[in-house]
Automatic annotation (TrEMBL):
<keyword id="KW-0472">Membrane</keyword>
<keyword id="KW-1133">Transmembrane helix</keyword>
<protein>
    <recommendedName>
        <fullName>TLC domain-containing protein</fullName>
    </recommendedName>
</protein>
<feature type="transmembrane region" description="Helical">
    <location>
        <begin position="37"/>
        <end position="58"/>
    </location>
</feature>
<feature type="transmembrane region" description="Helical">
    <location>
        <begin position="175"/>
        <end position="197"/>
    </location>
</feature>
<feature type="transmembrane region" description="Helical">
    <location>
        <begin position="148"/>
        <end position="169"/>
    </location>
</feature>
<feature type="transmembrane region" description="Helical">
    <location>
        <begin position="93"/>
        <end position="115"/>
    </location>
</feature>
<feature type="transmembrane region" description="Helical">
    <location>
        <begin position="121"/>
        <end position="141"/>
    </location>
</feature>
<feature type="transmembrane region" description="Helical">
    <location>
        <begin position="6"/>
        <end position="30"/>
    </location>
</feature>
<feature type="transmembrane region" description="Helical">
    <location>
        <begin position="64"/>
        <end position="86"/>
    </location>
</feature>
<keyword id="KW-0812">Transmembrane</keyword>
Length: 198
């Protein structure tokens, strides 16, 4: 009886104590604490630091930098420079040239010359000069150059630079950041650590 009691008591006590101790302490401690700690730490570290840092900081930085740079560059430099400088320069130059040189020269010089010396053909010359030279030069050349330059500046430079470069850089950077950084870091590192830990 004593022998059995001691044997059973000591055996069961030691067995249960060691088993429960090993199970509860080591297994639960190691599994719950270390695993969850490492899992949560790595997960939070990957998510908070890598994802948020790379996504928010780099993406927003590149996005805002490129967006603002391209927008300001296109707007301030190309648009203002080309529109104000070239357009106004060509507009004023052509307008002043056509008006001052052609119109005033033809009108004042030829008209007055013909008017003073050739009154009988005044109407013919006047109508010819006005209808043909003035209207042709003013309407055709001015409007052609005006519309051509305006459409060229707007359609080619603005639309090409804005749509092509902006969309190309935006989509390229967005897709690159999303596909490479997000998918690579999230899928590869997360799944690797997740599978490795499991």
């Amino acid at each position: 009886f004593i022998y059995l009691f001691i044997y059973l008591f000591i055996y069961l006590f030691i067995y249960l104590f060691i088993y429960l101790f090993i199970y509860l302490f080591i297994y639960l401690f190691i599994y719950l604490f270390i695993y969850l700690f490492i899992y949560l730490f790595i997960y939070l570290f990957i998510y908070l630091f890598i994802y948020l840092f790379i996504y928010l900081f780099i993406y927003l930085f590149i996005y805002l930098f490129i967006y603002l740079f391209i927008y300001l560059f296109i707007y301030l430099f190309i648009y203002l420079f080309i529109y104000l400088f070239i357009y106004l320069f060509i507009y004023l130059f052509i307008y002043l040239f056509i008006y001052l040189f052609i119109y005033l020269f033809i009108y004042l010089f030829i008209y007055l010359f013909i008017y003073l010396f050739c009154c009988p053909i005044y109407l013919f010359i006047y109508l010819f000069i006005y209808l043909f030279i003035y209207l042709f030069i003013y309407l055709f050349i001015y409007l052609f150059i005006y519309l051509f330059i305006y459409l060229f500046i707007y359609l080619f430079i603005y639309l090409f630079i804005y749509l092509f470069i902006y969309l190309f850089i935006y989509l390229f950077i967005y897709l690159f950041i999303y596909l490479f950084i997000y998918l690579f870091i999230y899928l590869f590192i997360y799944l690797f650590i997740y599978l490795f830990i499991y």
